[in-house]
Amino acid sequence: MKVCMVVTNGFEEVETVGTYGILRRGGLDVDVYSLRGTQATGRFGLTCNALKDFAHFSDDNYAAIILPGGPQYKELENTPRVLQLLQDFYARGKYVCAICASPTILGHLGLLQGKKYTCFTAMNEDFGGTYCDDYAVADGQIVTGKSAAAAIDFGFAILQALRGKEIADETKADIYYK
């Protein structure tokens, strides 16, 4: 099973790399796309190369789309194709996942209406759902994470949604997560 992440300059390193690591450990294929060609630099200077170019994005084979947070969320939200993909994934019953600042994008699109969700607390608005002060929240096909500190829980919430509790629990045991 394949999932994709979309990043650009200013991505939050912990949320991106931590989530990626959990998903890969759990047996998912993860493609990371950059809005800026084949590389992106995180908010603290980590540069990732050999990413997939978002200009060539095709979503036919992905079960989920994931948006890490960080200052990049502004550029993600101002990219019409990203917004369209989020709506398309949701409309087709695929998973839409976002952490920290990025769940606000989902909220602005109306995807959090009637849903339980979390996000960076200071950025919570009235999105028409129920804000939960938890590290990770899964409600139907929406999975949200609170902050960089929640990256591991967020990764496991996505893994459990896609591959089931047994695989998530096995992966937790493999890294001594409690």
Q: Layout of SSEs?
A:
Elements: E1 2-7, H1 13-25, E2 29-34, E3 40-41, E4 47-48, E5 52-53, E6 62-67, H2 73-77, H3 80-91, E7 95-99, H4 103-108, E8 116-117, E9 130-131, E10 136-139, E11 142-145, H5 151-163, H6 165-174
Task: Tell me the radius of gyration.
Answer: 15 Å
Q: Secondary-structure element order, as H and E? A: EHEEEEEHHEHEEEEHH
Instruction: Tell me the CATH architecture.
Output: 3-Layer(aba) Sandwich
Reported by name, the CATH topology is Rossmann fold
Proportion of residues in extended strands: 15-25%
CATH homology group: Class I glutamine amidotransferase (GATase) domain
Task: Report the total helices.
Answer: 6
Strand order in space, largest sheet: 5-2-1-6-7-11-10
Q: Determine the structural class based on helices, strands and strand pairing.
A: alpha/beta
Q: How would you characterize this protein structure?
A:
β1, α1 (13-25) and β2 form a beta-alpha-beta unit. The protein is globular. The mean pLDDT is 97. The chain has a seven-stranded mixed beta sheet, sandwiched between helices. Strands 3-4 form a two-stranded antiparallel sheet. It has one domain: Class I glutamine amidotransferase (GATase) domain (Rossmann fold, 3-Layer(aba) Sandwich), CATH 3.40.50. The chain has helices spanning 13-25, 73-77, 80-91, 103-108, 151-163, 165-174; strands at 2-7, 29-34, 40-41, 47-48, 52-53, 62-67, 95-99, 116-117, 130-131, 136-139, 142-145. By secondary structure, it is α/β, with parallel strands linked by helices. 33% of the residues lie in helices and 23% in strands.
